[in-house]
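A quick aside before the break. I want you to see a complete sequence-to-structure record at least once, exactly as it would be stored in a machine-readable document. Don't worry about memorizing anything.
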Amino acid sequence: MTDFSQIRPFHDSEISEILNYIKDNPTILQLLQFGFPELDNQEQMQLLLSCRKIRDFQSRIMYPIIKRAISKSVTEFSDQGFDRLNTSNAYLFISNHRDIILDTSFLNVLLYEKGFKMTASAIGSNLVKTPFLSAFARINRNFIIHRGLPARETLQKSQIVSQFIARCLLEKNRSVWIAQREGRTKDGNDRTQQGVIKMLSMNCPKNVSLMNYFKQLHIVPMAISYELDPTDVLKMPALLAQHHGKEYVKSENEDFNNIVQGFVGQKGCVHISVGTPLYEELDIIEKEEEHINKQIQAVVELLDTKIHSQYRLFPTNYIAYDILTNQQQFKEQYTDKEVRQFERRLENRSNVEEDISRTKFLEMYANPVINKLKL
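That is the input. The structure line, written in tokens, reads:
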């Protein structure tokens, strides 16, 4: 038996002990106050400690909190494609990634409301460095992807993650969410990393072809689209460092600040689109590509195509593209008022190294349009 103890979510038998461990943490108290303002402190604590299973915590605590965040920071929350999935089946959602916490939280809200099991979701070890954050992630059914390890150790951990994902899907009938790349897409150019697909392939049995194994995982491409990225200004330093060819070093509280701003910041419209599981497409890849590495690359390109085609474009995307290209190709897609609002946002967020940061900001919103045009 593989030891999943370093990466797995908590078992239901561990929940009471963990809740007692985290119940007095200021972040938990703030979340309870945010999600349940109608209850006094004692009632909020009773509600928290009444949870006996992860599902209790997700449905009684996190679901109302995320619904309240939606009501306060999202003008329209829409979805597409879930009616083509079976509520009894488990799926591997491979998704673009824009917000540290909310991408998976929004997906789980939809799954819960539509009668699906909520997912086990991947989270980077860099985001759970403190005992509290690790406990909070694992009680939300997150499993840990270790970052920044030596090559040999990274390989070992990847094999364990690959086995854990397969166990969730094939043995536990539990859906899994994983990002198409390590970390969030900061420039709006959603691209699948080959390493993610290689990691998934590590658990393929020797007597099964890789494409047949991937079919067993029921891979579903997912695109999440934000009209406004509440962390756009926070992503600028990393984009500028990349532009200048410099290594970017995060500040001490940078990830936490991104989480908070992503949670409370205005997002405009948010749309989640899921495709149908990749079956026939994988059969075609198996017929056309003989070598494993070429098959993996074909899966990468297939996911990119699916995610780009499912991405919903908003006026902000069209405006950014037209400003960036100095034309009016999409002028029918937005109003003068929307242009003025976007230009104000642009001016407020690109005041350092103005020309470069202005371009980087525009690309962040325009790249989804560019990717759709390439289709």
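Two observations worth writing down. Strands lie at 74-80, 92-95, 120-124, 142-145, 176-179, 219-226, 268-274. The chain is about 55% helix and 10% strand. We'll return to this after the break.
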